[in-house]
Amino acid sequence: MLDQQTIDKMASMKLAVMARVYKKQLETPDTRSLSFEERFGMLVDAEWNHRADNRIKKALQKATLRIPNATLADLDYDPIRKIDRGYVARLADCSWIREHRNMIITGSTGCGKTYLSCAFATMACQEGWKVKYVRVNRLLTDLAISRGDGSYSKRMNELKKIDLIVLDDFGMNILDPISGRDLLEVVEDRSGYRSMIISGQLPVSHWHGLFEDSTIADAVLDRLVHNAHRFELVGPSMRRTIEKDLNPDNSEKELFNIELDKQEKKL
To answer: Per-residue pLDDT tens for 1-37?
Structure first.
């Protein structure tokens, strides 16, 4: 009776996992041979791990990653791609976020830029950082809309609070002066205070030409590039590789389209 009252109290205090493990201990004779400290430690560990898992799950949901299951453990280190395993390992602890540094990932279409970006973002979520993934064109469109409806300042303040912003598909369009200034505002607010991952097809040496206003280009690139870790991915497009593997006679396009997203995580 006393045991059930203890379980009910745990549940009322929202310690459901601890209550479940405690009940299992009572039903398992082997655990009775353990000391009080050992059994209590098991209860605390179960509750702690459950809450940690929930925090990570919520962080990943808020991050809205394009590839939510991307992990650094699944990276393909084929020599043709020239990805330095040691370099990835050094950055895996997310100390670069703590140092407010950026990351730039460039490479041709299909070579795994988005997967690598999301893999580092996943690690950041696991380490307790606030993360948000967004495509550059979508971000600039949202900022333009927010300027029109009067919520621009609120939107900018929300972005300031995010520890790591992943800007994907940078360089898909030329940036007019207004879009350039919006991007500069985002970058300026984060420079020295927060981190960004920027991925795009064009090499960094071509980024200046993406801005119609060269002054804005100078300001943005100075804040983005000088303290950034860089990955320049090479090798054949994984989309073409996957298409060939799935459909060697090129007659089953539907199958390729369905399977592409599943296998895109491989670099």
So the answer is: 568 888 888 888 888 888 888 888 888 888 878 888 8
Neighbours of 120 (CB within 10 A): 27
DSSP H helical ranges for the chain: 2-12, 16-27, 36-63, 85-91, 95-98, 113-126, 136-149, 152-160, 177-190, 214-225, 238-246, 253-263
Q: Is the four-CA dihedral 137, 138, 142, 143 of positive or negative sign?
A: negative
Q: What number of other Cβ atoms are within 10 A of residue 27's Cβ?
A: 8
Give long-range contacts, CB 8 A cutoff, 24+ apart: 14-21. Answer: 15/47, 17/46, 17/47, 17/50, 18/43, 18/44, 18/46, 18/47, 20/46, 21/46, 21/47
Q: Which of 111, 104, 116, 265 is nearest to 199 (CA)?
A: 104
Torsion on CA atoms 192, 193, 199, 204, rounded to nearest 10: -10
For residues 164 and 167, what is the distance between their CA atoms, to the nearest angstrom? 10
CA distance 34 to 25: 10
Please give the Cα distance from 61 to 182 (Å, whole number): 26
pTM score above 0.90: no
Q: Which of 23, 69, 27 is nearest to 43 (CA)?
A: 23
Question: Both ends of the chain: CA-CA distance in Å?
Answer: 58
Q: Is 64 left (phi over 0), alpha (psi -120 to 50) or beta?
A: left
What does the alpha-carbon distance between residue 179 and residue 56 come to, in Å, rounded to a whole number?
A: 33
Q: Of 182, 191, 180, give the one whose Cα is nearest residue 217.
A: 180
Does residue 199 contact residue 230 with C-beta atoms inside 8 Å? no
pLDDT tens by residue, 96-151: 999 999 999 999 888 899 999 999 999 999 999 999 999 999 999 999 999 999 99
